[in-house]
Write a structure and sequence with these properties.
Length: 139
């Protein structure tokens, strides 16, 4: 049997820190992924958030992102660099769905700097490999 929204909203101040702790579970990626999914479901419910001062005003009920989603977003943002792909993707999908994703275009990424001649070769113009070979020959 489902818990009524008003009853769940009352326990939300206790549940959110618990879920945020699950996001920090360093050894268990499945726990992190499940916590992201639960936070997504909680964030998708526009009726939740009053108990954590994150309820949207009635005029903004359909607006995205909701105050509750903005409250949850920093915890998800921190996991966008998670070592497990499934966790990263769950976070990115949730943030995109909530219109909170910071989209970066590859075309706006500056090219990597090309080493100058003095960095590729020693200051005197000789290759670093040649220096190592010369040093290896010296007694």
């Amino acid at each position: 049997q489902a818990v009524p929204v008003m009853d769940f909203d009352e326990v939300l101040p206790t549940v959110l820190p618990c879920l945020e702790n699950c996001l920090a579970a360093s050894s268990d990626w499945q726990t992190r992924k499940q916590a992201v999914e639960v936070l997504q479901i909680i964030g998708d419910n526009v009726d939740l958030g009053a108990s954590v001062d994150a309820a949207p005003p009635p005029a903004e009920l359909l607006a995205r992102p909701t105050p509750l989603q903005r409250r949850i977003a920093p915890a998800l943002e921190a996991l966008k660099g998670d070592k497990v792909r499934a966790v990263r993707e769950a976070c990115k999908e949730t943030l995109e769905m909530w219109n909170l994703a910071k989209k970066t275009l590859a075309s706006h990424v500056p090219p990597a700097p090309v080493p100058s001649g003095s960095e590729r070769f020693g200051v005197n113009g000789s290759s670093n490999n040649n220096k190592k070979k010369r040093q290896a020959r010296c007694p």
